[in-house]
Amino acid sequence: MKKLKKKNTYKKPGPTTNSANGNKRRVEVWEKKLFSFNFFKMPHFTGKVIRYIILSFVVILLFCVLLVNYSTSSIDKKNMTILVDIPTGSSFLKVTEILNQAGLIKHRVFFYSLSIIKRASRSIRAGEYEFNTSLTPVEMIDKLLRGEIKNYKVVIPEDLSMLEIVARLDEFRLIDKELFFELASDEDFLESLNIKADSIEGYLFPDTYFFDRSMSTRQIMKIMVNQFWKKVTPEMIKRAGELGFNTHQFVTFASMIGKESGDDMEKPIISAVFHNRLKKRMPLQSDPTAVYDLDNFEGKILRSHLKRKSLYNTYIIRGLPPGPIANPGLTSFKAVLYPASVNYLYFVSKKDGSHFFSSSFNEHNQAIKRYRYINNESIQSLEDSDLE
After folding, report:
1. Most exposed among 2, 147, 342, 352, judged by the fewest C-beta atoms under 10 Å?
2. Domain spanning 49-150 has what CATH number?
3. pTM (two decimals)
4. If DSSP codes are grouped into helix, strand and coil, which group holds residue 103?
């Protein structure tokens, strides 16, 4: 029986292999695939990115240079002054539009960019601004952010009437005239200002004020009355009470002294004349009171004015008029409180800003003949008996 031959399954040994070599080959294969998929394109892609970066940097740098140049250059070379009114509640976009219409913004993109950097989008104070075109845009924005609105220096001289003060404020377009007159006799408004009277006349203290057009008529009136209460102290009011005058009478008395003379040295003497006449129950016979309630009175005071029936005419009434005839200053108030120690009862203007004072009626009549003529008509002094 033949023996079966075993099949030779032996293989010739090949190159030596191990797991480490296999892993290595796999890594090489994946690297080849990755390079074949992306890295053949990388040089072109990277170049584009770099070009974009460089171009963006150049654009940003150029924009910054232009922005700096814009922000530090004058708006224009015309050196013009332009008034701009910013209404209450205006947004920054509205403010920008107003400035643009006024010709103050030459390049909107740069102006907006500068505004963002300066954080100018926050609320800007309403009011009237004055810009000179020699300003730079950054200076203009800073001025808006600081709220440097235009102030008007308003000088209110002593002894102007309320009507004259209203006219002066209206020249600067600072008030609503109709509202001013309405508030001037508004009971609640006067009470809020601690004025116990029918009118604000006498309480608008003469001074130099700085007002702006963002202020309301009510605010301006309040500022002037507050100044009155700062100057007319409680001690002065107490002294007036000791002399027999309440606050309103004190103001009324001072207004008469102020209207009679602008000479501070004479005021205590004029005050003494009025004090002396009050003690003797004589009419005060103050010329300005005779024409106070005449509309738009101008010119010289005539004899007919002195005889006209009026609640304010101290040639007709006895004692003080019912209210002030002007808005007196501090020297007039002090003159009421501290009259000169003289026994004068009369005075007449010498036509040079000063007065001639006398104690007797005969001496006063002689002074009238010497100093006082109105429309070429000599005015004879009116005795008490003529007024009854």
Report:
1. 2
2. 3.30.1490.480
3. 0.75
4. coil
